[in-house]
What we know:
The chain is 29% helix and 20% strand. The protein is an alpha/beta fold. The strands form six sheets. Strands 1-2-5-8-11-14-17-20-23-25-26 form an eleven-stranded parallel β-sheet.
Amino acid sequence: MPKPFHLLVFFLxxxxxxxxxxxxxxxxxFLETECLNVPATEFIGSLKTTIDAIRKATSVVSQFGGFFHxxxxxxxxxxxxxxxxxxxxxxxxxxxxxxxxxxxDNSTGDLSSDLRTWLSAAMVNQQTxxxxxxxxxxxxxxxxxxxxxxxxxxxxxxxxMVHPGPNSKSNGTRNGSQKGGGGGGHPGQNRFPVWFxxxxxxxxxxxGVTANVVVAADGSGNFTRIMDAVETAPDKSMNKYVIYIxxxxxxxxxxxxxxxxxxxxxxxxxxxxxxxxxxxxxxGWTTFRSATFAVxxxxxxxxxxxxxxxxxxxxxxxVALRSDSDLSVFFRCAIKGxxxxxxxxxxxxxxRECKITGTVDFIxxxxxxxxxxxxxxxxxxxxxxxNTITAQGRKDPNQPTGFSIQFCNISADKDLLPSGNSTPTxxxxxxxxxxxxxxxxxxxxxxxxxxGWLEWxxxxxxxxxxxxxxxxxxxxxxxxxxxxxxxxxxxxxxxQAVNFTVAxxxxxxxxxxxxxxxxxxxxxxxxxxxxxxxxxxxxVTQGCLAANQKHVDEQCRFTRYSxxxxxxxxxxxxxxQKPDILSALINKTILExxxxxxxFTKFTTDLHVDEAxxxxxxxxxxxxxxxxxxxxxxxxxxxxxxxxxxNKHDIQTWISAALTYQQACKDSADSHNFSNGDLxxxxxxxxxYLSQLGSNTLALVNRIPVELTHFTKxxxxxxADRVFPEWLSAKDRKxxxxxxxxxxxxxxxxxxxxxxxxxxxxxxxxxxxxxxxVKAGVYKEKIRTNKDGITLVGDGKYTTIIVGSDSVNGGSxxxxxxxxxxxxxxxxxxxxxxxNTAGPRGEQALALYVASDHSVFYRCSIAGYQDTLYAxxxxxxxRECDIYGTVDFIxxNAAAVFQSCTLSLRRxxxxxxxxxxxRSDPGQNTGFSVQNCRIVPSSDFSPVKHxxxxxxxxxxxxxxxxxVMESTIDNAIxxxxxxxxxxxxxxxxxxxxxxxxxxxxxxxxxxxxTWPGFHVIGRDEAAKFTVDRFIAGNYWLPSTGVTFISGLx
Length: 1049
């Protein structure tokens, strides 16, 4: 297509989508003409006729309500009245949007997409009403069907009148032949729809959301029933109304009516907050009304909740979740049932990281629905039954509906696996004549039969359906024996597959989402694919978008990977507006980090069982690390927008942490060899790419000007010689200082507390600071928590002890060997011991793994041998702790300060090394600062300390950084002080190791290494690594109550 025509198309689309609120009346008429295939007056007239027909049909149906004492028939009539009411509303929305395209209340900004979605729903409703009369009085069904079929015909004609957009084919799929696949983004893209507001996306991903009301089964909230909370929400609200549902089993049927807009429900976790029902078709309910949870109000969001129907396979249709909510999102939710588990009835819906289980047609309906990164699991059903995953219900070729399943895992559930997949299971079957389902870039297990798809009834719809597959993997993904139906397609290139991505399939043709986010999302057709993949929102000016290349070049020259920076940013901005390159880079890194589940599952294909288990361990750890990375990237983006100068230290810390997690994944992949040597290489290369993006981002973050008030306040506070870092609240400070604490839970081995294990107490924690008092005793537990605000208080660091013995030599992974793992922020521990007793022969054996920002350990003991303390990332503070080990027994890439601690060398198998900093990028604000500590041999090592070499540290990564200052060093430490990492002598130039004002027989620096990167520093340089300067401790530590030295002594 020639470029002038591109510009013409862009101009027409811009008019059609009403991006200018000052457009004249004649422009609006032109817009309506471009969006319709008929004059606007004809379209409006047909709408009025159809609305009038619905009113008449409603009058007819309502007359049957009191004549029959039949439970099933009464339900069917009730359904019909509700469905007709919904159709009337959807046509009213269509009328309003057609007459006033600039209205924002109920629109995405893409008029064509909105009209087609609403009209399609209005057509589906009549068919659902008719379907509900199955098994009832045939006379009533005949009378009602006559009225409804007339409405369906009228709505079908309306749908034909709406132009599907300049970039669409008549069969309802979009043209992928234009540059970039028609502007929809590459099929490998993995993101939320544009209509999903950025602030709503953050609500899904951050912890500690502020709720309007709280539901708690135990009575600790505002309500004990979910429906009571729903009824408090305002009608047709444009603001998000958040309902937090605490963990528990809620046996109720919830229905969110169409007037309840923008509700958000947040639970405590999939399988923790459970909404359960057992209605079924066999018990007299219509399929529509059998739903445990039904939502019709637009803009609904759910996170961390399970919706289940426990009726069982023998009760046939029994819906767990039914959604008619336009622009709805379900994130980290489970939908559990058997037949007809998930009813995606109508409208645009998005499911992300959900688990969906069932038997027959367990994902069905006629919405425009996209599933990303979901687990779709077939269960064991009735004897001689066949499982079908999808049953899509598109009944007209003009409907913009269908199912797109991308980056998902399609497998057997645990109850089906033992039977050897004996139940025939298929990807789908055509419920209606124009059924449409696409499965792409997903893992398909051998639970799926080789033919892939199943007929509904002989040759029904085999010519008119549209089923397709693209780039799937796994033992069930082979195409050699797939069905040979005319409507089945194998997509061979991204230009075809891109039609079914988020950008194309459920966003419409060019969504101008200025009302949903802070910027307009329109771009020229020439550039839309690039911008979509980058996930950036750009300002639209009167002229064409042009790159401000000079600004890009100027900024990118400060990055380590300048060519990548320029390539990423070229095309941003306009002649009059410079792009925000830093925000753009963070956005780009976020999108590239959102890897699909199928990205990792593909690595286990064709491996031996033992290798597959090993690979699963690595990929599972990488998935966890990337999830942690995304959390920090999102925090950084939010902080950047609030105040980049005030929040600079936070942003540096969080971007540094994201880099650390990528490096940890790469390290895990690089350390293993498999029969297919390319497997881990692919992961390693991907992490290299993400690290380069992160490094460029961090380089620009480090150029943010420092807010001067910070240093003014810091110098003043530094005069107080012994106070805690300021980021600890007054309450937290008291928790660490007072002799007796008021605990939320008590753990005691003898049964005298609330719990006998620490794990049980942590699992009970729910929001805010949660204090757990652990009585004296040895607790043999392996503990892992990602909850924020946990505090553990023991009876003494050698009295209350948490013990484990896992090790790499014993079969664990290095991170998996940890006795105690914490990744939730604000963790505090006092008077507790953490031990790994695997011994020196266990090789790596962690006692403590910490990836908690603003974490504090006070008067604790941390004992092991090799790799005792994994201070992985973020800001950490250790005060008056005893840390024991041999090789690299304090390692990781946190910004960690150790004050007034005792670092005890144990008897090694070879030699001892205390510090192994993993700083991999010069821009990271990480490293280890050891201040006012004692470095001594343990009692078992002291008699033979001169028979072994012991060192202060070695460089684990290229930019390793460690500082030892104002400490007492025993002569167990070799005179050279530091040692090379094996095979990495080149690190001696790029590392930063330093000493300042140490004392003791091992503190002399005359015999120290002469590396370029080793320094004996002065007071001004040493001040950079104090609590105040290095971890911004004056802003968070005072609240913990732990004594600390703010500056130098």
